[in-house]
Design goal:
The structure is a single chain. By secondary structure, this protein is an alpha/beta fold. It contains 12 helices and 16 strands.
Length: 362
């Protein structure tokens, strides 16, 4: 199962909207087949492992170790459960049940009804769930998993009042961020970040993706420059969330350049970002990462758009009242009203940095 999980990790960023899955076939004490899923290859991990086992004389009588319950429905491919039955597998050990309502135990039942022994390796369920947390969240809620990422000093600052040349975190921490970004389907920032930094906001890992990272800018009045790096690099992978108050001429100019303009009117003349997760879900995006400034960070926390945070802390302090905090806006006026978190994890980034990962209490 450890090897199946390692195979599944090779699919990270390469399977959405499908889950990442790894499979290992064992026969007479020897591994005879391995497989993992990628969206472009279409074939599921179990089928890839069965094909791999053909050179070893086939998989009849083998045990399958798989990170997720084999599917039981027709999608882009026939059901894996049927393929396992046909191949003569005698035992299936899975790390977890598939949360997809189209499966949800039916794959196990199909195998059991065919006389195949089925077991859930509960000691691996947490690890397997973390590999597919966006997919699981999407299946259970109908919405993408929204993660707020930020780089902070130890006193919670993300920006100095005058010169912000350089980086808060180290090169190693920024490389870690790129891997998290690679695993995301979409990324959101605010117009303030675009105007101050002119970012590309792309996946810079160079690794294969199941589809391009969708870049999104919250821009209520369409101030995004037509010559910004995001607009000039748009290739069906850039959307701007705005309001009906924005200029029609400006909207047409962006659309002419291949930018998708989404009109989500909200209170106070601002774009209603609470509508964004449902839009992304309809487009089969499983995850959204937010990398933005202080105001937008507070807006997504206050509106409960964010499901979790990924805060990178550097061993620095800016201090002062003018340096921007990670979440600005009006904030909460009483300690008892503070936004709270659970399932907090601390990840070390040697030698002196760390990440706080936590889920938002809703």
């Amino acid at each position: 199962m450890d090897e199946a999980l390692e195979l599944a990790r090779q699919g990270l960023g390469r399977t959405s909207p499908n889950p990442t899955v790894g499979a290992v076939l064992v026969k007479d004490g020897q591994i005879v087949g391995r497989g993992f899923h990628t969206y472009t290859r279409a074939k599921h991990a179990e089928v890839v492992a069965l094909e791999d086992a053909e050179s070893a004389g086939g998989a009849r009588g083998a045990t399958l170790y798989v990170t997720l319950e084999p599917c039981s429905h027709h999608g882009r491919t026939p059901p894996c459960a049927d393929a396992l039955v046909s191949a003569g597998i005698t035992r299936v050990i899975a790390a977890m049940e598939d949360p997809n309502p189209q499966v949800a135990g039916q794959g196990f039942r199909r195998l059991h009804d065919a006389g195949i022994e089925v077991e859930v390796a509960a000691e691996y369920t947490d690890e397997a769930s973390r590999l597919n947390e966006a997919f699981i969240h999407s299946m259970r809620t109908g919405l993408p998993l929204v993660t707020l990422k930020a780089a902070l000093t130890l006193d919670g600052k993300i920006s100095a009042p005058e010169d912000n040349t350089g980086w808060i975190t180290s090169e190693r921490a920024r490389a870690h961020v790129q891997q998290i970004r690679h695993n995301a389907d979409a990324i959101l920032t605010g117009i303030g970040t675009v105007l101050s930094d002119d970012p590309l906001l792309t996946d810079r890992t160079g690794e294969e993706r199941s589809r391009p990272l969708l870049r999104i800018v919250a821009d209520s009045t369409l101030r995004i420059p037509l010559d910004s790096r995001m607009v000039t690099s748009a290739n069906g992978d850039l959307a701007v969330v705005t309001t009906s108050a924005a200029s029609d001429e400006r909207r047409r100019a962006l659309e002419y350049r291949g930018v998708r303009v989404l009109v989500f009117d909200g209170p106070g003349g601002r774009a209603d970002l609470t509508r964004l997760p449902a839009f992304l879900a309809a487009e089969h995006y499983r995850s959204l990462m937010i990398e933005s400034g202080s105001k937008l960070n507070w807006a997504v926390l206050e509106s409960r758009i964010a499901d979790k945070i990924f805060f990178y802390y550097a061993p620095k302090i800016l201090g002062g009242l003018r340096s921007l905090p990670v979440a600005g806006g009006t904030g909460r006026l009483r300690r008892t009203d503070a936004i709270q978190f659970h399932n907090v994890r601390i990840h070390s980034i040697p030698p002196d940095e760390f990440v706080v990962e936590a889920w938002v209490d809703k």
